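Q: For a teaching session next week I want to show students how multiple molecules come together into a single three-dimensional assembly. I've collected the sequence lines for a complex. Could you give me the predicted structure tokens for the whole thing so I can convert them for display?
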Amino acid sequence: MVPWTGSTTKVGLAHSAYVCQFLRDEPKAIDFVEVPFELLRHDPTVLSVGQSTPLILHSASLSLAGTVPASEDTFGEIREWIERTGTPWLGEHLAFITAERGYFDQEHYPGEPYNIGYSVNPPFNAETVEIVAGVLARCEEYFGVPTLVENQPVYFTPPGSTMTQPEFIREICARSSAGLLLDLTHLYITARATNVEPRETLLELPLERVVEVHVAGAEPGMGVLWDDHTERAPDEVYDLLAIVLAQGDVRAVTLEYNWSMHFPVSILKEEIARTRELADCA
Amino acid sequence: MISAKVETILARCMVDSEFLQRFADNGAAALDEYRLDEKLRREFAEIDVGRIKGLAALITKVQLNGLWQHLRFTRTLLKLQGIEPQIFIAYRAEHQQNRAGQGVCRKEQTRRFITFLDEYIASRSGPQYAAIADVLHHERFVWEIGTYAQEHAAGNGASTEAESMHLTSITPSEFWRSVPEIRGLLRTQRFTYDVSALVERISASDPSPPTDCPGAVLAYWFDPSVHSLRIFEVDDLSEAILNSVNGCRSVRAIVDRVNRTEAVFVERRAVRDFLAESINAGLIVLRPARRRSSGVTT
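A: Of course. Below is the structure for the complete assembly, covering every listed component.
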């Protein structure tokens, strides 16, 4: 594996089917590739990308904020991939993906939790903070690399919430040593859905804890914006990126254009250049 | 305990379409299954159900990102027309069944989604849906033939040739009894719009159908001799004949069927000429009529 070195802000891509070809055509265009643990588990050959480019490991499997803990096997497999990829940290969603099946829904899969297969916001309250802090303490002890928590887009406020998402994130940072994987598009979507200025939401977060930033597109629908990794990021997201880069010690910006293998290369290059320019100016 | 209850209900909304619909129709009644205090019940009632449905649709969409590989222009058009959320909300229940069933491979996922979308589009009318149907059919056939090509590696054509008949060496009565068979795989489709013009518009992010470019009947053929896809225009009679060729019907039965279903009298000579042309092009082979079974088991 190519090791992660240097202290400047690096620019990379989230893994997608086009990434290998892109790297062959443009070997110097990006500094790293972010690879999902779930993909490596399914297709270990993806690891070969790391022979030419440093890797960052991302995960959505720990169900950090869930009341059903991830299995020992999942922890073990993630640790194995942390070692194999040489990732400098592990990015994980501040969300749940599994949940207890209620008493009234035991007909088909008794005893098995619901598995959404996607990250969903938990209630933002002290109880969830406690759960997340507990799992993060375990991660710190077990993984040997820092764990970063990623903010989810808030499309609606989860019932049972007693705080806003920024307050929730601040509490978690206060209770743990975790860094932040700040998804600026998620933040922008959240701000729009909750009628708050994106910049205000941004400045409520502990920006000094931001290690990595995600940038992707968003698409309007049903009165809100939806996460969309097939679209280029809105200008407003880049405005937020400039603020974060100026205030924090960001080590990596990942462009997440990974939902379609046909994402236009010309736009990809423009997005990389735009991000590099911002990083260089910071 | 509150977090566990909330996550259970939200998770169920995401994976159980029937429950989500009940929640949308009458949230209070759906939540009666759970022991919630008044505050939580009120907070659930305050959520815009459209956003929960939207999230469920987004999850379905993302979990089917692999479909972009084969249905690139279909998905782009759905997106440009702004109907992606409705499509994925409608597909949620079937998608969850697929997720629950073990071993649904990518190919099968693709096939099931195509079938769903084809039926969904067919149940609606209007030029926008006709355009989606056109681009879906085009990509479907390209995908089916690509898949067929992968599964039938070169060399498969050899056995096809073994028992084929040559027009020049058979009698007229043998010809009428012979059974035409497609070499490789063939699909035909009557398009509302010109597919090339449609794809060009989609590529330019224009969702409007090319109403000034009417469609034609196209044949998509995997030609095993060159191991590649050929797309060509066919006339109505050729379409009718090709659609009747199933590897079981004799030439006579095909003529009868075309005359019956097309309500046009087809001259035998026209069929013979078309078959001769198709045989020369390698599209069709003629097989001898199968002997009837004697019914005696030895």
